[in-house]
Predict the structure.
Amino acid sequence: MEGQTDFSGWPPRIADFLFRSPRARSPSLLEVHILTTTRSKRWNGNIESLKADYLTGVITQMDTYGDRVQFALVTSGNGPRYQLTNSAGKKMAFDGNHHLHHPEEAEFAPGNSTGVFTLEQIKLAKVGGLKPARTMSTGTVKRASTTRAPSAATRAKDLVDSEKYEYFKANRSTLPDTIGEHSTEITAMMRAGMSAEQAFGEVLKKYF
């Protein structure tokens, strides 16, 4: 219709709202943000405020994918998004429901995330025993300067986890949505000598 803005390129929910507007004008950035925003909200960074069930999920992922964690200062689902780092420096992010998450470029940058916590600190936080010392400027956790080199078993575990994740990431579009339910079984087969491709293939033949 002449005089009206073409909304064909907008998502249906937004286009319908704007088309029904008395002026049918081009939307402002603020309007688009309000209409497309998810149910994410800012979080204060205090891990002692997180629920035990949520931290149990974080601990489960840390046991598998990396023993250091940073939390984003935005919550989604049952808690904030978080990023794990293993001894090889590989990073993997999850949303508040513990599903794989592709973070925005600066999502875990200083000012947008907490400092780094160890697996032991998260376990303490779960039972209410963590009293981290934080700096006023960055909010990072003060830790002892001495670190232990990862054991051979830890390095082998990290190698398997890294290979498994790389295969999953490269083939995510063709894998079933529920493949993650068999992660432990895939890991066990890889530790027994299978490649990631072979282990995933066995699970696909067995369950799908």
In short: The chain has three domains: 12-37, 42-126, 152-207. The two ends are 50 Å apart (CA to CA). Confidence is low (pLDDT under 50) at residues 22-38, 132-139.
